[in-house]
Amino acid sequence: MIGALIAAALALIRICAAAIGVGAGRSRAGRGGGGQEGAASGGSEIVGERGHELRCCSCQEMSLQSCPAAAGDATAEELLDRARALVPPALAAARAATGFGGRWKAIAARLERVPPCLSDLSSHPCFSKNSLCRELLQSVAATLAEAAELGVRCREPPKAGKLQMQSDLDALAGKLDLNLRDCALLVKTGVLSDATIPVAQSEATAASAGGAQTDVRELLARLQIGHAEAKHRAVDGLLDALRENEESVLSALGRGNVAALVQLLTATAPKVREKAATVLCLLAESGSCEGFLVSEGALPPLIRLAESGSLVGREKAVITLQRLSMSPDIARAIVGHSGVRPLIDVCQTGDSVSQCAAAGALKNISAVPEVRQALAEEGVVRVMINLLDSSVVPGAKEYAAECLQNLTSSNDNLRRAVVSEGGLRSLLAYIDGPLPQESPVAALRNLVTAVSPDSLVSLCVLPRLVHVLREGSVGAQQAAAAAICKVSSSTEMKRLVGEHGCIPLLVRLLEAKSNGAREAAAQAVASLMGYPPNARDIKKDEKSVPNLVQLLDPSPQNTAKKYAISCLLALSASKRCRKLMVSHGAIGYLKKLSEKDVAGAKKLLEKLERGKLRSLFSRK
User: Fold this and answer.
1) How far apart are CA 285 and CA 316, in angstroms?
2) What's the Cα-to-Cα distance from 404 to each of 353, 381, 407, 577, rounded to whole Å?
3) Which of 205, 236, 376, 561 is the most buried (most CB within 10 A)?
4) Using CA of residue 528, residue 533, residue 539, residue 541, what is the dihedral sign?
5) What would the pLDDT profile of 513-549 be if each residue is shown by its tens digit?
């Protein structure tokens, strides 16, 4: 009875395989004899040995590839009927097979799950409108045919040996698992509901290289469904879609799609890893998927790719890590996944783009206080100093300076480490450039208290600060003013600062638009006035009193007023300066500040009002 059933099944399989083969031939002819893909997508042939042995070629290797032409003109309903008809004979063959009982039992269990999956798929209202369904049904039919054929072979004397049969059975089990998983995912992804492209149009798109735009949701579904080769082609299509219309891809992107891309970071083929890393890099740079990337486990494979990937793969991985590390939580996670060492290695050996991105990532990580010591233990200080000294990439130098600024912001041990490694000299050399930026000057500000005044003089720190006050950005000038405050703790250093011509530059910085720069300048001026010759120079500067009076603005945003009051109190001994203060509106400001009990405001107000009264009586 079972033999008759299997014989009937094989006859049915031959008919189905012949139909598929004819369709595949027609597809190849339509493409001009188109090569290996046609053979992979639809070729199946029947070997006539004993009149009933069926061999299915690599049709089953393609769970959801973009070449549905292998089924000819068959509709989704027709393909569904064929697949359903192949289930009973495949199941009967599996149960009747002799040898490898455990494997066949597991295969039979999988075959029993096929009909419910097909029912779920076919019950979807958009079942017949999407090419993915047709491709999946092709693959299911090919897998069922292979199951029946292997069942027959297991009832006969083995031709290729037990090891080969074991390998074939394991491969069959894997294909069944893939078919079952794909069927479930296809229903769950929502792509069937979103399908609006007619089947004929989808086929034309899939069959033509570089044809019309592929539906984004279908591409995203293909990332999750099918064999590796199908997913690889989906990544190519997704890259094209991102370049053409990034917004449409981002709006359709979901957690499952990101997870599928993350899995491709560990693909066997380097090119696939590169392409997946490129897509993830674009997504990270868009700023819309950081949460998905981390929650779906992207950090470990990205770090591995940065460590040992190809040139392109490493570059894209490092750029992605740089973007992700802007979040303090993700920066901590990168450290937790041992990501610091690969980034340091890229800084030392990578190309210019990768080196710059790695330095940027380390700069971002160094902004998190609790991981700074871990960075130092990995040798980041020496590497950043080397970048300052020898990198030809301006961006890498800037990131290195920012990293050193962060490392030295609150840790005396790290400050001493930077100084002992020669970091102060490297920062000064970098500051010598035509337009000094904030980060190297801020790092210098952090370090000036870690060296002796004699060393500051011998290293020519003060001329560099003058250069920054003249030529630097506003942020750099603010940092330079703060550095002057720190070095001016002694009378001797106050004298040297004044002799180097810093005072006129600081007075002009009082006019800066940045509140922080005005505050730093006012604090520096107040400190320098403790040396009488400096106070005389400030008094002589025609802009000093007007600029300081403007800093009496009672606005809460003005944080420089307490230093301005200190400076003006020191200058109020001069009758000329008092007159200037009054003429520039100091009394009005001071009355408001006195009401708020700002330190020194009432005392200065009384001085100015007494002087005004004396002036009035003297005129009478």
Assistant:
1) 11
2) 20, 7, 5, 43
3) 561
4) negative
5) 999 999 999 999 999 999 999 999 999 999 999 999 9
